Amino acid sequence: MQMTLAINGADHALDVDPRTSLLDVLRDHLDLTGSKKGCDHGQCGACTVLLNGRRINSCLTLAVMHEGDEIVTIEGLGTPDALSPLQAAFVAHDGYQCGYCTPGQICSATAMLAEIKAGWPSHVSDDLEGAPELSAAEISERMSGNICRCSAYPNIVDAIADVGRDRS
Amino acid sequence: MRPFDYQRAPSAQAAAELGAAAPASRFIAGGTNLLDLMKIEVERPETLIDISRLPLDTIEQTDEGGLRIGALVTNSDLAADPRVRRDYAVLSRALLAGASGQLRNKATTGGNLLQRTRCYYFYNPAMPCNKRDPGSGCAALEGENRIHAILGASAHCIATHPSDMAVAMLALDARVEVLAADGSTRTIALGDLHRLPGETPHIETTLNDGDLITAVTLPAPPGGRHIYRKVRDRASFAFALTSVAAVVELVDGRIATARLAFGGLAPKPWRDRAVEEALVGQAPSPALWQRAADMVLGEAQGHGSNDFKIPLVRRTLASVLDAACAGEK
Ligand SMILES: Cc1cc2nc3c(=O)[nH]c(=O)nc-3n(C[C@H](O)[C@H](O)[C@H](O)COP(=O)(O)OP(=O)(O)OC[C@H]3O[C@@H](n4cnc5c(N)ncnc54)[C@H](O)[C@@H]3O)c2cc1C
Ligand code: SF4
Ligand code: FES
Ligand code: FES
Questions:
Q1: Are A17 and A85 spatial neighbours (Cβ–Cβ below 8 Å)?
Q2: Do B106 and A142 lie within an 8 Å CB cutoff?
Q3: Taking residues A28-43, what's their average pLDDT?
Q4: Which CATH class is domain A2-77?
């Protein structure tokens, strides 16, 4: 199928089998290999990208369903010379060991901080209607869709908390 | 994944017509359950009807003072809606206890209701499963059945319905709006949407080919304390072993109204009105909670590795009812 996808601010004309997941288009057709495939079933979060500003699992959606949407991957958040605040914080806090889950963690955290800013409650929020806190418990709960096989969680939480504090 | 013909539905009516005309078809909304199953070829639609762009993504006030939730409203948007957080807290809580932030951004109201069981054998085409392959047997009966049903199951299938959202909606007396291929519409009480397995576990709902869920409606908000308690194998991002949705109102130290629904126990979200009636008019007490649990579990049957669910429900229900009545006179 012929289609055009808007990724990291640029339009890409593609011809793909309708079975192709968004993740496979990114990695195999566009060589945007920052997004990772951990499980291919929505269970690990390594494939997290932003779809119209919201985090999703790119392995559990079809590319053909996303014409007209704005997709941002880890490559679109920052560059080695101009890291995004979360990218810089992950470096500063050593928020990884092997790094396989990291692009997904950073994309997920980028959108997660926006969710907190928008006042979305979480499973661990005491008050559904109050302004959410940026506690370690809140960050862990909200990031539970991103598994880290190396268990770098403490540093990941610290990195996110740092950036979150700067924003609020 | 098997090849399919991909069609983007231009309207709800067109989607329903297409769905009825091509019987081996599936609607795709968020895709988080359907694609998962298509990848392992448990789902093999020949036609995939993309409904994700239909304008069914708003939450509106109804004339009766309730809410009408479009079928494509995402689980995230529903959980964060200010009216839901204020007036239907049990629903926000249930949604927030389900899946992950990423999945809730894609998961839709209609798709969540119609998500399929997480039975391990249903997911494993090498094993017998009456739901996936009618007549082949049920590997869970004699196998691993930690997550399986203790109520409402049959000798042909003991799978549970995995949704959290549906459990809260059942406690809230939700109704499901359906558009049929012939253009007619009807509403179904949520409790009548899913079927018990009986001898036909592959027939899971009362919907016909082409029936499109367009919305879920909630009646005016029930007062009282709203609680959703989910017990699972890890603290986040896991399905329920059991869950209880409760909306309980106490007046002068006695239970005035009680709505209770259970997840993780049965092939469908479970509600037992006799239990609710038995609670009304009574003063809270541990003995009353045990009587309520006796009633809920009257027909309960474990299958080995899920035997623990029987005492677990007992304790979870008591704890939820305690919390619902705590601090009120
Ligand atoms: C790793 C993981 C963990 C999860 N954890 C939880 C959890 O803890 N609790 C929980 O409740 N859920 C959980 N889920 C399930 C998730 O909530 C569902 O996958 C999601 O709600 C399905 O919605 P969807 O829009 O993506 O459905 P889809 O995958 O698009 O569709 C599912 C089914 O519904 C049908 N359908 C969709 N919309 C309509 C409509 N409008 N009318 C008629 N038919 C329709 C489709 O044809 C399909 O058969 C989890 C999922 C994953 C992958
Ligand atoms: S419990 Fe149901 S879904 Fe699981 S193997 Fe048995 S028949 Fe299949
Ligand atoms: S690869 Fe998408 S969630 Fe694991
Ligand atoms: S750093 Fe190795 S998986 Fe997270």
A1: no
A2: no
A3: 98
A4: alpha beta
Spacing, Cα B278 to ligand 3 middle (Å) = 46
Nearest CB to A112: which of B1, B31, B101? B101
A117 interfaces chain B, CB cutoff of 8 Å: no
Across-strand partners of B250? B255
| Dist. CA B114–CA B51, nearest whole Å | 14
> Rounded to a whole number, what is the distance in Å from the CA of A146 to chain B's nearest CA?
8
pLDDT on residue A81: 95
Which option is the CATH number for A85-167: 1.10.150.120, 3.30.1330.60, 3.40.50.300, 3.30.2350.10? 1.10.150.120
Q: Which of A41, A120, A125 sits opposite B36 (nearest CB)?
A: A41
B234-268: per-residue pLDDT in tens?
999 999 999 999 999 999 999 999 999 999 999 99
B278, B292 contact by CB (below 8 A): yes
Whether the CB-CB separation of A50 and A28 falls below 8 Å is answered with no
Chain A residues in contact with B82 by the CB 8 A cut-off are 129
For B260, the domain range is 226-326
Give the phi and the psi of residue B289 in degrees, each rounded to 5: -60, -40
Comparing CA positions, the residue from A168, A163, A108, A166 lying closest to residue A141 is A108
Domain locations in chain A as residue ranges: 2-77, 85-167
User: What does the pLDDT read at residue B23?
Assistant: 79
**A43-86 pLDDT tens trace:** 999 999 999 999 999 999 999 999 999 999 999 999 999 999 99
- Using the structure block, give the residue that is written with the tokens 């968020």: B30
Enter the ipTM: 0.98
Average pLDDT over residues B296-302: 98
